[in-house]
Design brief:
The protein contains eight helices and six strands, in the order H-E-H-E-H-E-E-H-E-H-E-H-H-H. It is an alpha/beta fold.
């Protein structure tokens, strides 16, 4: 299309304005892991990467039906570096970034839903998503936590990472294998994005008996605790010891 030369800069300005306004209705959906990065711990049979992608794609369809523009950091089983994910998000000023994950642990008893944010402008979105997801889950409420994960620190827009349960937990592993439950997770994340109040609904447990873990799940041995102190703890102790020695030395010299 050819525009008269004097009108072209004005046209670009109009496009930029429209893009900024439209960005308010843009959600960048990030499906965790992918490609060679399965997620989880060694020996874990339920693959995290495909469960993340499935929930993310369901969320995409829900949000698009509601009129949102949805940008996926990945829409297939490929590995996307963390820096690239953040760069994609940062291209959409005024958007929000939602990263979908499932949790894991070497201790099979670990369970629950937790949601993370980093900057203050993301706290409200994190709280809204967390309340909604917890409302339909029979899992423990592990709370909303502030952590400096890379995709939360390096994005310039409100950013949240939601952990949708432990794949290494027998009950939550069964739930993750249910397409109905993954759909409910996507619906509740969408409700959270829309800042809707958490709906009180009966947790989806009736279908658990009919689900079989089969070869897609293995119990992980209990977590072993090491008696060794962390380097940070040793450093802290060493620092305190050094300060104490300096004080004693100072006191002795003053008494001399």
């Amino acid at each position: 299309m050819n525009f008269p030369r004097p009108l072209f800069p004005a046209f670009l300005g109009l496009v930029a304005f429209a893009g900024a306004a439209f960005g308010q209705r843009t959600i960048v959906v990030d499906a965790g892991h992918g490609g060679y990065d399965r997620g989880g711990v060694p020996g874990q049979r339920i693959s995290e990467k495909d469960k993340c992608l499935d929930v993310a794609q369901r969320l995409k369809r829900i949000l698009q039906a509601q009129g949102y523009r949805v940008v996926m950091t990945r829409d297939s089983d490929v590995f996307i570096p963390l820096g690239t994910r953040c760069a994609i998000a940062n291209n959409y000023r005024g958007a929000s970034f939602v990263s979908i994950h499932f949790n894991c642990a070497s201790r099979v008893g670990a369970n629950g839903i937790e949601t993370y944010y980093y900057r203050g402008d993301s706290a409200g979105l994190a709280a809204s998503i967390h309340r909604n997801v917890v409302s339909i889950s029979p899992s423990e409420n592990r709370g909303i936590r502030r952590r400096g994960f890379y995709v939360l620190r390096k994005t310039a827009i409100p950013s949240v990472l939601v952990e949708c349960g432990f794949l290494t937990n027998p009950t939550e592993g069964r739930l993750a294998l249910s397409a109905d439950y993954r759909q409910k997770l996507a619906e509740q994340i969408a409700r959270g994005i829309n800042r809707q109040p958490a709906a009180s609904s009966k947790p989806l447990t009736s279908s658990l008996k009919s689900l079989s873990l089969g070869d897609d799940f293995v119990k992980v041995p209990p977590e072993r605790t090491s008696g060794r102190r962390s380097s940070k703890a040793r450093s802290h102790k060493s620092s305190k010891s050094t300060k104490s020695k300096k004080k004693k030395s100072s006191k002795k010299s003053s008494e001399d």
